[in-house]
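User: I'm putting together notes for a lab meeting next week and I want to include a structural view of one of the chains we've been expressing. I don't have a solved structure, so I'd like a prediction I can at least talk through. The sequence is below, exactly as it appears in our construct file.
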Amino acid sequence: MLIISIYHQVGAPPKSWKRMKRHDHYLTIDILRIFAAILVLLNHFATFGWETASVVEGDHVAFGFLSAFAGLGAVGVEVFFVISGFVIAMSASGDGGLSHAIRFARIRAIRILPALWLSALVSLVARACYGEDLMPLLMDFSRSVILSPKGPYIDGVVWSLVIEAVFYFLVAMAILSKFRLSLYGLAKLIGFSSAVYILVLAGLHVVPQSTDADEWISFLSRFQFKVLMAQHGVFFAVGMILFSVKSDHDKGDSRKFKLELLSVFSVMGMAEIFMSVDRAFEYRTMAVVIWIVCVFVMIVGIKYVDLIGVYFRRNKSIITYLGGLSYPIYLNHYSVGMVIVWMVCSLGLPDGIAFLVSVSIVLGLSMGVMWLERKIQTAIKSWFPNPARERLKLAV
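Assistant: Thanks for the context. Below is the predicted structure for the 396-residue chain, given as C-alpha cells.
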C-alpha cells in the first residue's frame, strides 16, 4: 500500500516519533500551510477578470499566464484538511469531559473567528465599494460570521471553514464523551463514511453516461454533502490517523492496521481529488501527485520534528510567521482579491506587473489582518485563566 511504502521509505521511527509531545511545533506543517495557501491563491487568481471583479474565462481573464493553476491549485484545500486533522487531533488529545470540551471549543473559536470576522468585514467593504447591493451583502456577511451551513457567503472560501467547524464539533463531542468514542474511533467513522460516499460517486462517474447517473452526481455534489463531511472526510481522517500512529506505542498488528487504514483513506482522497479537478487528465493527475508529495513531506516532518527543528532553527521565526500568515491569505485573496485585481488592471499596467502589485496588496492586507487578529486573540485569552500560570503560582 502507498502510505505503508512511504512510511518504510523514510526509515525506522526515531525516539521523537514515539514520545508523546502534545506541544511539538512542526515547522514542516507551517511550510505546507503557506504552500497550500499560495496554491489556492494562484488557483483563484487564474480565473479573475480584468474588466469586472468576477470569475471569467478565455480572453477576459486578467492573468492568462496562470492558466495551469486553474482548478489544479484547489488541491491546496485538501492539503489544509489533512493538516487540520492532524493538528486538531493533537490539540484534543488528553483528558475528556465537559471542561475539556469547552476549553477545546474556546481555543478553536479564538483561533479561527477573529480573522474570519475581520476578513469578512474587509470583503463586505470591498464588494460594497465595487457597487454591489448592500442588503444582500449584509445577509452574506451575517451567514459568514456565524459559519452558517447555508450560503451564500461574503467570501467564496468560507464554505471550507463551515466544514472545519463541523469537524471541530465532532471532535468536541468525542472529548465530551470522555473518549468513549476515541479520536481514533472518530477518524475511522469519518473516514469510512466519506470513503463510501466517494466510492458511490466514483462508480457513477465510470458507468455509461445517462440522465439518471448525471442526476445522481448532481445530487451528491450538493453542498449538504460537504457539510456532512462526506466529500472531504477522508482528508481529516488521514491527518487524525497520522497523529494516532505518531502517538501510538503499540507495535505489530495494531500499528500495521492503522497504516493500512491510512493507505485506504489516502487512496479515497486521491480519487476525490481526481474527480473534483475539472480539467484534463494531466491536470487531475498532477493535483493527485501534489497532494501525495505534501502528505509525504508531512510524514517526514512529523517523524523527524527534532532534526528539522535544528536544521531550520535560524529561520524558525520566519517559517512560523508564514505558517500563521497562510490563514489570513486564504481568507483575503478571493472576494477582496477579485476587486483588487480589477482595480489594478484598470490602471493599464502590464500583466506581470499587475499580478505582482495585486498579490502584494493581498499580502499586505493579510499581514494587517494577522496583526490585528493576534491583538484580539491576546485580549480574549486574558479573560480566561491560564492553567500553566496558575500551577506556577502554586509552586511558588
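A couple of points you could mention at the meeting. Confidence is low (pLDDT under 50) at residues 11-22, 388-396. Residues 2-395 form one domain.

User: Perfect, that's what I needed.
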